[in-house]
Design a protein that fits this description.
With 312 residues, the chain is of the alpha/beta class. The chain has ten helices and 13 strands.
């Protein structure tokens, strides 16, 4: 089953067909005429009582469809439930294979706060920020006020999820109420969790990512880097591999940090470790995402691979 929609679901189904696997699709009422429904060997409609997005986040219904129809494995694609540990746990409890990281991996890296704590244990530099996620803007404001080393502007980030959702820059203390609520509501609608944490805003950094593969026993390799600094509303527009103008020393340190973090958690499958590099060349762990993104190879040849999506 491709537990997703659109292009990624179509690609999963194509890969399944090439491997000789029967494929299963799911679709909301609004997606009943879309391509991914008809590319599947079987397709099942999700709840009509939920919004188009919420339908694809309905874990109980999706797991029930798997059990009722003999689905052996579920590929989550990206977004939606791809980083949801509860989804992976319920699938495995029902005897359905989750094509992705382990439940422990998802718990550790799906929650940005726990991922930061792992970075600290791995001696990877992090940006000054809160240890816990907050449920209300007043909690966030109080925390900033209690930390003299932290000054505005700050950035509010959703504790769960990714894709640029649930992120807002807070220029001043007076903006915390509105910006926190915007980020929290967006995260709640997209990921089902409105908690956010706060960290120091780094002005005009480079966004460098390292793609890695782990075997689940502590062996991790990197597949080099890409630059994702061209963004709109905190969502990547262009990803270029390799990152140009990055010093060899910084690049090697980032590779080592990414692999060490994932190895400490016995990471399984493909994963991306994201870093911010400031204008002085210092790097900071940002977050880790499950699965892969798409890259555009630059004119300069990469020393390794530029992947489309090795999970497929």
């Amino acid at each position: 089953m491709a537990a997703n929609r659109g292009e990624i679901a179509t690609r999963i189904m194509r890969a399944g067909s090439e491997l000789g696997c029967s494929t299963v699709g799911i679709y909301s009422h609004e997606d009943r005429f879309t391509q991914h429904r008809y590319k599947a060997d079987q397709a099942f409609q999700l709840s009509t009582s939920k919004s188009p997005v919420a339908a694809y986040l309905d874990i109980d219904t999706i797991v029930s469809l798997c059990v009722q129809n003999g689905v052996e494995a579920v590929h989550p694609g990206y977004g939606f439930l791809s980083e949801n540990a509860g989804f992976a746990e319920k699938l495995e409890a029902a005897g359905v294979k989750f094509v992705g990281p382990t439940v422990d991996n998802l718990n550790t890296f799906g929650d940005k706060v726990s991922a930061k704590n792992l970075a600290i244990r791995a001696s990877v530099p992090i940006i000054l920020g809160s240890d816990d996620a907050f449920s209300t803007p007043s909690e966030a404001s109080e925390w900033v006020a209690s930390n003299p080393a932290l000054t505005y502007p700050v950035i509010v980030k959703a504790a769960m999820g990714g894709g640029g959702r649930g992120i807002r820059i807070v220029p001043t203390a007076q903006d915390m109420e509105s910006m926190f609520r915007l980020a929290s509501n967006e995260a709640l609608n997209a990921f089902g969790d409105g908690r956010c944490f706060v960290e120091k805003y780094v002005d005009r950094p480079r966004h460098i990512e390292v793609q890695c593969l782990g075997d689940g026993t502590g062996n991790v390799i990197h597949l080099y880097d890409r630059d994702c600094s061209v963004q709109r509303r905190h969502q990547k527009v262009i990803e270029t591999a390799p990152a140009t103008g990055l010093s060899r020393e910084t690049r090697e340190i980032i590779f080592e940090d990414a692999c060490r973090m994932l190895s400490m958690n016995n990471y399984r499958n493909a994963g991306t470790v994201e870093f911010l590099v400031d204008r002085e060349g210092k790097h900071y762990f940002m977050e880790s995402i499950q699965g892969c993104r798409w890259s555009i190879q630059s004119q300069k040849k990469s020393p390794g691979l530029t992947l489309s999506n090795p999970k497929l």
